[in-house]
Amino acid sequence: MNLEFFIAKRLTTSKRDKSSISAPIIKIAIIAIAMGMFMMIIALATGLGLQQKIRQKIAVFNGHIVISGFNGNASDVSTVPISIHQKFYPKFNSVQGIEHVQAVATKAGIIRTATSFEGILFKGVGKDYRWDALREFLVAGTVPKIGAEYSNEILISQYLATRLNLGVGSKFNTFFLVQGQHKLPRARRFVVAGIYNSGVKDFDSAYIIGDLKHVQRMNHWRSDAVGSFEVFVSDFDQIAQKGEEVYNETSSTLNSQTVTEKFYYIFDWLKLFDFNILIIILVMITVATINMVVALLVLILERTQMIGILKSLGANNWSIRKIFLYNAFYIIVRGLFWGNGIAILVLYVQKFFGVIKLDPESYYVTVAPVDINWFYILLLNCGTLLICLLVLLLPSYIITRIVPSKSIRFE
User: Residue 405 contacts by C-beta under 8 Å, 6 or more apart in sequence?
Assistant: First the structure.
């Protein structure tokens, strides 16, 4: 057995050590490391979870990349038709990493009920629309059935349904503006098939989703004309690169824009989370390291006589330093164990029960999302352990200054 490890193990398991002066200092160091690891894991998991959830919600309503015509229209209303006969539709084979392409069109309108009215954007979708991600936000009913025939079923947000006093099965009239002067609005009667709640007020207060054929008929478009294409990528981290590739692969009459460009204000806000997480990690590691330095110095001073005896028996400085570093390693691991255990327990409780709620107007979500990334957690643990041990090499140098003849008589 390694001699230094054996001595360090005896020191950590000694009953005398538990009643010594260093005992409360060691406990404080363990608590500091545990709290630091707890805070780092919580900050990382909630920060990443919030970023992923908001990205997912934005992608549900816009895709990752939007291909549209150059119409000079700053709104989301589709005014210039685009033929669906494109080389990238329905499969974008010329660019790797494209999961799906769907054709959509939007039109502005006003919902009028007996008691209220609301301005909306009617998003027309076809049979190729991805409903899977949107089903997660359903709070009542089901998604509309879009087929070969005209469908009057729509999906409306809980926000609009509450303001308009609508429920699943309710029928209502919607009036759509017609391009050109002196033309009466066109009326359509829809039935509520389902109600969703995404938590993003920018979308919930505007969008209802229904059959694309309504937009085509009201705009006098052909059946093969749409307003835009929504493109989904498999890896969001490559969205900037894929956005350039998609732009290069589309014709000169079409424009493409990533959601990070379209909703830059949201993604700039999300980037602040990365900075906040980094600051928390640096502060927590600093606090844990300072506590470990203090604990190690107390351990060395308390064992001054033992150090002198070991030196008089022929032990070299590095061998004695290793004893205390092994002891520090044990303290750090205990702190990491409790910090990881409590943090992961809290994260799983939040993941399955959603105990902590958030204001959707400020955070775009109603429940604090978490992303338990085991690779990042392992990286945090290894980084904290390595940094603490490297920093502890400096205070352990004090052992080299201890003189056996004086330390043996030290009390």
Answer: 308
